[in-house]
Design a protein that fits this description.
Blueprint lengths: L4 E10 L3 E5 L2 E3 L1 E8 L2 E3 L2 E3 L4 E4 L2 E3 L2 E5 L2 E10 L1 H11 L23
């Protein structure tokens, strides 16, 4: 991976529901896919087939509830400075996001380094 980009793949089985408290923390730009498993935090609920693009620099934390079952989620975290550099270098078309799950394709196109 390139410095400033982190890839995480969560692949695990919960045998019972799990509730955790997450504190406020720094949060880079994030693009993720939920392939299996469901979780809820505040009014947000994620289930298989959904994806997200978020990041404000600070995550407010909260109570996360995960239901028992198999989880497979993929997340790409991008440092804000790197994202800004990519966008300013490549222009407005450097990030092209298309629908990702459930039979359609997805990609983020970035310029070569």
């Amino acid at each position: 991976m390139h410095e400033g980009i982190a890839l995480t793949i969560d692949n695990y089985q919960l045998h019972s529901d799990l509730t955790t408290q997450i504190e406020e923390h720094d949060h880079p730009i994030q693009y993720g896919f939920c392939l299996s498993g469901s979780f809820r935090c505040r009014e947000d609920e994620l289930s298989p087939g959904q994806y997200w693009f978020c990041g404000s620099g600070l995550a407010s934390g909260g109570i996360y509830k995960r239901l028992s079952g198999q989880y497979l989620q993929i997340n790409v975290h991008i440092a804000p400075e790197l994202c800004q550099s990519l966008i300013s270098t490549a222009g407005p078309n450097c990030l092209r996001v298309t629908s990702s799950i459930s039979g359609t394709t997805s990609r983020i196109s970035v310029p070569p380094w």
